[in-house]
Write a structure and sequence with these properties.
Layout lengths: L4 H10 L13 E3 L2 E3 L3 E4 L8 H11 L3 E5 L11 H14 L3 E6 L10 H10 L4 E3 L11 H22 L2 E5 L10 H8 L7 E6 H7 L4 H8 L3 E6 L1 E7 L2 E7 L8 H10 L6 E3 L15 H25 L4
Parallel strand pairs: 3-4, 3-12, 4-5, 5-6, 6-7, 7-8, 8-9, 9-12
Antiparallel strand pairs: 1-2, 10-11
Helix pairs in contact: 2-10, 3-4, 5-6, 6-8, 7-8
Amino acid sequence: MKQNRREFIGTVASAGLLLPFQSTSWSIPQDNKQEKFPLRLFSKPIDNYDFDFMCECVNRSGLGGFDLTVRPAGKVEPSAVEKDLPPLVEKARKYNLAIDMIVTGIVNATDPLAERVLKTASSLGVTHYRLGYLDFDLKTGVWESLQKYKGDMKGLVDLNQKYRIHGDYQNHAGTRVGCSVWDLFEMLRDYPPEHIGCQYDVRHAMVEGANAWIIGMRLISGLIGSLAVKDFTWMTVEGRPRAVTVPIGEGMINWDLFFRTVKELNISGPVTLHVEYPLLEKDEEKLSLSQQQNIIVRKIKKDTDYLKSYLEKYQLI
């Protein structure tokens, strides 16, 4: 019988075996304290700025660190990870910020850069990474291609165990693997949840299942290693319906139901805030960096404060 993540942790703890896994636990130590839901910023929206500027934005917004892009065209190119990631981690620490989450393009262990990225990241204190995305091969078949990817996950599980790092695949609206959490459950359910799991994104889950998302969340709850949060609403764009990301609290996500369920199911893990609506209007891009930063911070902090209010409401922090 398969154990979910909480059952696994309870078993090894009772056996006195939890210590070897503490560096990859879902509660990340910061300044000698344990946080159940460390709050991080998905760095993509501000990657084009100088890193000091980025750190100042995150600090002023009330977040504890970064979910940093370490992927092609990201803040750090995978091929330069050994050279470029260490100084960013060191600089973040000077701002009292953590880089303990990264976003990668890794989808299997045969990628020649996969081990380099995971080895380097782990040595610098990164405990969680997001995988890249997989496409269904419609010629092979949906189920058949899913089973192939399921087999490919074994190599990543081995790498994750080797480097004491946890990998999560994000559920994402669309037609790729992960558009429904049901496919992720099938792909991941046979592997140890302390090594690999799902980065549960409530926005994308609700886009794909306006009412059924809560059932999918319950299904995959034992495999959730991290949470991605953002909000959305439906708009008509060029005559067609489109899910458009908006500031948290201004969209359609039922945050009470979401956080009540997080508490009920005893889900925990780092939270990556995705600010994927425009941070600057066109005319604001011409402002000074200081003025741009004030606008960016105001928007990110609004989302952060809203998120913290719900964590407090449901006594999750």
